[in-house]
Structure formats: C-alpha cells, structure tokens
C-alpha cells in the first residue's frame, strides 16, 4: 500500500498539489505503527550551506549534520584563502541550534593518496581541532570525495563511531542492521525534484529504512555541479516538515539517529552500543 502512496505522493508534489500530499501523509499515518528516521547531511561547510542551508532549516525547525574540513575553515579565518567556507563562529552557531558537527578531514584531500601518518593527521587532527573549536569531539566522519578503501575505513573506525560514504545504496540504510562503517547517502543533485526526495522519505517509512540525505552547495542562482537551488532545497525541507509534523518520519542528526538505532539493536543482544565505549579509546590516545 505504501508503495502506491509513494507514487501518488510523487505525482502530487510534481503537480504542485501540496494539499494532496498532506492528506496522503495523514492517510499513511493511520495505516502504520513505526516512524522512519531521516538525516540531513551537508559536506564542506560552505557559505551557501550557512546562508541558505542552515537559515532555511531554521525556518522549518529542522536540524542536520555538518561535515567540516577544518583546514579550509582555518584558511578562511587566516585571510589566506577566499571566503567560500564558513567561519568557526558560523559553525558554533549551527551547533548551538542543535546540529551535529562531524569531520570531513583536515585538508579535504583524497585519503587513498595519503601516507599512514597523513591519514592519521586527517582523521585525528581534524577530530581534535573540532573538539577544540566546539567543545565536542565528533563521532561521525565523511570521507572527502567518497574516496576510501577497506583499510581506510578501518583507520576511520579507530577514531570515529560512524563513517559516511558520499553515495552508497542511495542513502537507504536498513534501520535494523545498518553498517556504522558504511552509512550510505542519497545525494541531492540539480536534476532531482522535491517529489523524488520526498518520495524516498515515504518509501523509507514503508521499508523501515534510515534515509540519509546529502547536500553540497545550495545556491540562489542557477545550480551547477554539486549544487541545488535554494528554491528546490526549501521545497524539500517544506515537505520534510509536513512528513515529520504528521508523524511519518523523524528528522535526526547522524549521531542521534545511529545511537538510537544502536540502542534498539543492542537491546536485542544485551551488549553496550559502541558509542559508549569510545571514551576509553580516546583517553588512551
């Protein structure tokens, strides 16, 4: 039934019939007992993500996870680079609004091109700097360019609890058995419609999926590669808000979503979730 409703949802939004989409959401609620988890993620900490991504999310009362490449922010603040990225003040403001701050490495270089020492610096160095700047050590890591190997994933998991790919199974992570070392994301591109993204959220409810969505640039003018328009982005967040307000989905940061799913999963196996075991590892580092 929900498959059919997802198709109707896509049609309603593509036709601009938002009120029809609302009634479809309400109808779904009456026929299901669980709520899908959706996470909104943002790579790079660009200015467009602050000016549009964050501000529009605030308008709808939604939070997300921002992945920061620390050296890019430092270059901005030192005056030796352009103003493409946010400042640490911007990042702290976003964090104070309930967002999670994750690491996107130090220099945003491909990890597979780095030496072992450089990889450690990209992973642990960025983690320490984010903790120094925000007061909270990040537990989530997004690989630059989606570039990683099995060995690199193992290195990432020495320092972080969650590793996110760039794409990976279109963001559809099985809620009951997601892999914390390979959390896939649905990248929103400039050839996608709000109906497609919202349709994925409806399907997530049908299939008990944790849907993780990825945004890069969010621009006021015509969207280029790795960008979406602010108008499309706002339409996506508008229907996200409708779905959440009507109980079909719950929007959570990656950290909160993964920890909730860890608790749910580990309650079945009576073992402590991995995120509770991190303190000793970091204390020994």
Question: Can you tell me about this structure?
Answer:
With 285 residues, the chain is α/β, with parallel strands linked by helices. It has one domain (2-284): Glycoside hydrolase/deacetylase (TIM Barrel, Alpha-Beta Barrel), CATH 3.20.20.370. 48% of the residues lie in helices and 15% in strands. The protein is built from eleven helices and eleven strands. It has helices spanning 2-14, 18-29, 47-59, 70-78, 88-96, 116-134, 150-159, 194-207, 230-245, 254-269, 278-284, and strands at 36-43, 65-68, 100-103, 140-142, 162-164, 172-174, 186-187, 209-215, 217-219, 227-229, 249-251. The strands form three sheets. Strands 1, 2, 3, 6, 7, 8 and 11 form a seven-stranded mixed sheet that branches. A two-stranded parallel ribbon has the order 4-5. Helix 3 (47-59) runs parallel beside helix 9 and helix 6 runs parallel beside helix 7 (150-159). The longest helix has 19 residues, at 116-134. It is globular, with a radius of gyration of 19 Å. The protein starts with a helix and ends with a helix.
CATH class: Alpha Beta
CATH architecture annotation: Alpha-Beta Barrel
The run of helices and strands is HHEHEHHEHEHEEEHEEEHEHH
User: Would you give the CATH topology?
Assistant: TIM Barrel
Rg (CA only): 19 Å
Let me know the average pLDDT: 85
The number of domains is 1
- CATH superfamily caption: Glycoside hydrolase/deacetylase
Number of continuous helical runs: 11
| Assembly category | single chain
What percentage of amino acids are in beta strands?
15-25%
Kindly name the structural category: alpha/beta
What are the segments in which pLDDT stays under 50 over at least 5 consecutive residues? none
Give the strand tally: 11
Shape field: globular
């Amino acid at each position: 039934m929900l498959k059919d409703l997802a198709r109707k949802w896509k049609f309603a939004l593509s036709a601009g019939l938002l009120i029809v989409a609302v009634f479809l959401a309400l109808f779904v609620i009456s026929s299901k007992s669980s709520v899908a988890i959706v996470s909104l993620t943002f790579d790079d900490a660009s200015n467009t993500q602050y000016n549009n991504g964050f501000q529009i999310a605030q308008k709808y009362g939604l939070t997300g996870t921002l992945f920061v490449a620390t050296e890019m922010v430092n270059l901005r603040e030192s005056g030796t680079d352009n103003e493409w990225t946010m400042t640490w003040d911007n990042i702290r403001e976003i964090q104070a609004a309930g967002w999670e701050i994750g690491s996107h490495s130090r220099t945003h270089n491909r990890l597979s091109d780095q030496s072992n020492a450089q990889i450690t610096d990209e992973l642990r160095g960025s983690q320490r700097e984010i903790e120094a700047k925000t007061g909270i050590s990040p537990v989530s890591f997004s690989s630059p360019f989606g570039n990683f190997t099995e060995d690199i994933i193992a290195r990432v998991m020495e320092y972080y609890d969650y590793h996110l790919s760039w794409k990976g199974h279109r963001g559809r992570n099985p809620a009951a058995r997601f892999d914390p070392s390979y959390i896939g994301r649905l990248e929103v591109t400039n050839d996608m419609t709000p109906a497609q993204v919202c349709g994925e959220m409806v399907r997530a409810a049908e299939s008990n999926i944790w849907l993780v969505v990825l945004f890069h640039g969010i621009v006021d003018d015509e969207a280029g590669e790795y960008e979406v328009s602010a108008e499309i982005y706002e339409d996506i967040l508008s229907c996200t808000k409708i779905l959440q307000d009507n109980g079909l989905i719950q929007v959570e940061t990656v950290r909160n979503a993964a920890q909730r799913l860890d608790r749910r999963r580990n309650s079945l196996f009576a073992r402590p979730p991995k995120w509770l075991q991190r303190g000793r590892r970091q204390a020994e580092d």
